[in-house]
Specification:
This protein is mainly alpha-helical. Helix content is 62%, strand content 6%. The chain is built from six helices and two strands; from the N terminus they run αααββααα. Strands 1-2 form a two-stranded antiparallel ribbon. A hairpin with a 6-residue loop joins β1 and β2. The longest helix is centred in the last third of the chain and has 17 residues.
């Protein structure tokens, strides 16, 4: 997958599309009305950017344009994690993980998942 970086607003739109696609611009504005004050014009601009990035597909064959995600949530999260790690790695991976563990109030299940991931990483080395 090509390098992809999403803004906070783009993440909001992508999460909507992953959860409920296809969606029209009007449906997205309505779904976000309690969280944002975005107009149809604002959402349209952001969707155009997402389409330019290869993250969404537009189907204009019907009465209203329908938007679909072209990338999976897992791929987007994986790429965002790589981007974040590349930006903050100067403090070391341990600092990043310890900060997440302390500040994110991880559940026991999430901690077990981290242990599993770390064990798998050790096996692959």
């Amino acid at each position: 997958m090509a390098r992809l970086s999403l803004s906070d607003g783009e993440w909001k739109l992508m999460n909507l599309l992953w959860d409920r696609s296809p969606l029209t611009i009007g449906a997205m504005v309505g779904a976000l009305e309690n969280d944002t004050a975005w107009t149809k014009a604002t959402v349209n601009i952001m969707l155009t950017r997402l389409a330019d990035k290869g993250a969404v597909r537009v189907d204009a064959s019907g009465r209203a344009k329908q938007y679909y995600p072209l990338i999976s949530r897992d791929d987007a999260v994986r790429q965002e994690a790589k981007n974040t790690l590349a930006r903050v790695r100067t403090g070391g991976l341990g600092l990043l993980v310890s900060t997440m563990a302390r500040d994110c109030e991880l559940t026991d299940q999430e901690i077990d998942e981290l242990y599993r991931i770390l064990r798998e990483g050790r096996k692959q080395s």
